[in-house]
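Hi support team,

I submitted a single chain yesterday and got back a structure, but I'm not sure I'm reading the token output correctly. Could someone confirm the output below corresponds to the sequence I sent? I've pasted both exactly as they appear in my results page.

Thanks,
R.
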Amino acid sequence: MIGGFSTPKKDKALKSSGGKLVKTGEILIRGIDSYKAGVNVRGLGTLFALCPGKVYFTRKKTSHGKVRTFVNITPVAKKIKK
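Hi R., thanks for writing in. Yes, this is the structure output for that exact sequence:
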């Protein structure tokens, strides 16, 4: 890696853990292929939140027998102003 070019990215990580409150558009995971998008989450390489809420993880077995971990968000109810 001569002169700082083509340096490997160091920001590939889990950005928010389970139970954390997140905002819309907040990045949850970047660069890890073992996590898949679940409910209220989108993205392939970078998973981000579609609505504000609480993060939780689920594990499911595929038809081929491989276990996948899905990142999901439980939406937070909005407060009604009177």
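A quick pointer for reading it: The beta strands are 13-14, 21-22, 27-30, 35-37, 41-42, 46-49, 53-61, 67-75. Let us know if anything else looks off.

Best,
Support desk
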